[in-house]
Amino acid sequence: MSFNYSTIFDEDLSPDDPLFWSLPTPVSCDSVRTLGIFLCIAALVGIVCNGALVYSFARYKALRTPSNIFVMFIAGIGLFASCTILPLTGTSSIYCQWLYQRAGCQFSAIIAFLYGCASSYLLCGVSLSRCYMIVRPFKAKNVTVNKCIIISIISILIAFIWTMLPLMGWNEYTMDGARTSCCINWYDRRASYVSYLFFLFIVVYCIPLVILVIANRITLEGLKRMHKNIENGIQTGLNRKRIEMERRIVRSIIITTCGFIVTWTPYAVTFFASAFRGKEYALPPMVTFSCACIAKSSVIWIPMLYIGTSTHFQLQFVNQDALNEGIPNNRGNTVLPNIPRLSRKIDDIPMNPIPHNTVDD
To answer: How far apart are CA 239 and CA 233, in angstroms?
Structure first.
């Protein structure tokens, strides 16, 4: 199945012409409008879910653990994306044409790719931090909040550089086939354009994917080995309860990572394949636009999966019971005030009779 994009893109119409950005969609308006409604709903859900995470991280210090720092940055970028790219693409799809001219197109594409690139790197940071804590539990204190903040900022800056390259001449941002959203120019066969797509596919999708798979695999094997050592009476850096808690945390991270991979893989594969097939034999616009909508919807699936599987969160903002137990690094220092402690020598406690008609203060 292929599609000739030469039939919908006018070679004589320059992107400098305002008419280029306001042409109606060449595909079924009803189908595009349906996806537009979905994106508008996703924008509201994304604002609520990402806003809930950002609010929880800001209010509860106990949630700001080293690994959660990466999730906090993902939620922050996701909140911004939910307020920008989803409404822009959704409203344009409802009207079956792009409504925001060239500047809006470039802005929307930059934020979309920034979120995708930054999320892949930040998820790698989450997985690698947990992997280090499990493989080297006696050195887990080396993974600090400040270090994770610095790594997160560097990851976002690197992603920002990748998204700025098209504005500097290496590829460009333009309309996609459905003409209601914007993306990298993937149908131009010039070497500079194809090379950028190949570069993006490797450094933003393939390398992070390999890191995520290997890191989570090593983490699971490490937890399994620790559990076996405890059963055999061998000393480990973590006790049985802590290992079980770490297992739940890693499971939450893996599920969230799988959500990211599932939403972005169709987009990466279809656009990469279309780039090498050329404009005359590319995939139909509705296929690529649907994959783009699925990828953009990751701004809601990632926080929803994390909130639904994390031991620190429930759907109503914060699981207060989990916070009361304390975070892993400070669990041993948790103090429960105003709770009377009973002596282990129960027999030493005098058993005085309780007088009648006595009222306690």
So the answer is: 11
Domains in the chain with CATH codes:
20-318 (1.20.1070.10)
Distances (CA, A) of 361 to 62, 282, 358: 36, 82, 10
Q: What is the DSSP letter of 201?
A: I
pTM for the model = 0.80
In angstroms, rounded to a whole number, what is the distance separating the alpha carbons of residues 269 and 285? 14
Pairing mode, if any, of strands 173-175 and 182-184? antiparallel
Q: Which alpha helices (H) appear in 24-144, and where do they start and end?
A: 29-59, 66-94, 101-135
Backbone angles phi, psi at 90, to 5 degrees: -65, -50
Question: Which tens digit of pLDDT belongs to each residue from 300-314?
Answer: 988 888 777 766 555
Q: Helix (H) and strand (E) counts for the chain?
A: 10, 2
**Pick from 14, 32, 150, 188: which is nearest to 99 by CA?**
32
Give me the amino acid identity at 266.
Answer: P
Cβ atoms < 10 Å from Cβ of 86? 29
Tokens of 340: 């009377």
